[in-house]
Amino acid sequence: TRPRWHGCTMTATDERIDWRGTLGRAGEDCASRVVQECGYEVLARNWRNGTRGEIDLIARSSTRMTTFIEVKTRIGDRFGSGLEAVTHVKFTRIAQAAAAWCAANRPEAPIRFDVVSIEVSPSQAACLSRALESGHGAQWLRRNADITWCQGIQL
Prior knowledge:
By secondary structure, the protein is an alpha+beta fold. Helix content is 35%, strand content 28%.
């Protein structure tokens, strides 16, 4: 049988792809471009606080606000939206990692927590698969996915 992922039938070559990692990296690349296009400077990507948490993107706005961004990339809504995936537990881990980053880097201005949700229709999964396999996943997502940037989340 053909492999299935989030209810989408994929091609035979898709078995070689580490879907979660590849799609996640492409989503983070796409989100990084989006925030840069909006005038933010990306300070760090995939910043880890030991084993206690990771922040996908840390960016600074033109007003010097430091923004901690969680990126969620989804095919379909079978497991909910990207914003819904940031639970209280997940937000707590992000906040703990952000506190550690702030202690080490002493940002000059206020901080904010954002979520960038990147959603792809299941009908586009085969096209996305080819883009990921060819190394153009971020560009494909930028042109074809629904991207929502939720600023100032609080749980």
